[in-house]
Design brief:
CATH superfamily of the largest domain: Histidine kinase-like ATPase, C-terminal domain
Shape: globular
Structural class: alpha+beta
Number of strands: 7
Bound molecules: adenosine-5'-triphosphate, magnesium ion
Radius of gyration: 23 Å
CATH architecture of the largest domain: 2-Layer Sandwich
């Protein structure tokens, strides 16, 4: 009798869960579609503002200068909106995975090659500590490149006067770890408690989708992400992923 009861509970929970998942998928796809639809008119607006700006730049009356300033402000707002839409679409699209057994060291090395010139410009020293003989993990390479991009951008923004960005890989207890460590401003406990909330940002031009996207990507890979941070000292994000099953 009891067993029967819990069996029914289990079934209805599964049904609830499926219903919620399909509702979630529908809302996500609607929101993604909306963001996409806003993009085209927005780029028309931006283009026309560029043309207006060119016209106004020729004139030199005070009135034209005032107009140019306002149009420039509007144009900047377009750039911010475009970035918000891009970030949002990236967040909404996580879900379709193209997973393959991969070497995290290779991912990190590829990312460093890509990021090095920018880091040099900003006085950021990249310090890799890549453990040899790392087991493979099942990842979507492109999405993990985005994880590294988002975390490094945060690190970079926390080190406006430069610093060290350490990238570590290691293996422990059937998990492969990827740590991203910076010597930047660090976070207060309050910021840490909100950092994964969608649209939470302490930056004037942040959309607050960087970390939520990172957490979502790590989550769909069956991994976890932890953060240690101290104001004035720096921040460590630690990502763990299950070791890929050996092929049968
Ligand atoms: N490495 C870091 N050092 C210090 N603070 C950080 C770090 N990473 C994240 N934060 C804090 O967490 C907040 C949320 O980060 P998140 O990446 O989600 O958004 P954002 O960087 O503000 O905006 P976006 O990434 O969308 O441009 C940041 O505004 C910042 O306050
Ligand atoms: Mg960010």
């Amino acid at each position: 009798m009891d067993a029967n009861h819990s069996h029914h509970d289990h079934q209805s929970l599964t049904r609830d869960n499926e219903r919620l998942q399909s509702q979630y998928a529908e809302i996500a796809s609607l929101a993604g579609g909306l963001a996409h639809e806003i993009r085209n008119p927005l780029s028309t607006i931006a283009l026309n503002l560029d043309l207006l700006r060119e016209d106004l730049a020729v004139g030199d009356s005070p009135r034209e200068r005032r107009m140019l300033q306002k149009v420039t402000t509007l144009r900047k707002q377009c750039v911010d909106l475009e970035r918000l839409l891009t970030d949002f679409l990236q967040f909404a699209r996580v879900g379709t995975l193209n997973q393959q057994p991969a070497d995290l060291n290779q991912l990190v090395q590829q990312f460093i090659d890509f990021y090095q010139p920018q880091a040099d410009d900003l006085g950021i020293e990249i310090s890799p500590h890549l453990s040899a003989n790392l087991p493979l993990v099942n990842i979507d390479f492109r999405l993990f490149h985005q994880v590294l991009t988002n975390l490094s951008r945060n690190a970079q923004q926390a080190m406006p006067r430069g610093g060290v960005l350490e990238l570590q890989t290691y293996c422990r207890d059937d998990q492969v770890f990827l740590d991203i460590i910076d010597t930047g401003d660090g976070m207060s406990p309050e910021t840490q408690s909100k950092m994964f909330d969608t649209f939470f940002s302490t930056k004037s031009e942040g959309s607050g989708l960087g970390l939520p996207t990172v957490r979502k990507i790590v989550g769909v890979h069956g991994g976890t992400i932890h953060c240690d941070s101290e104001l004035g000292r720096g921040t460590r994000f630690s990502i763990s992923l299950p070791v890929a099953e050996a092929p049968q």
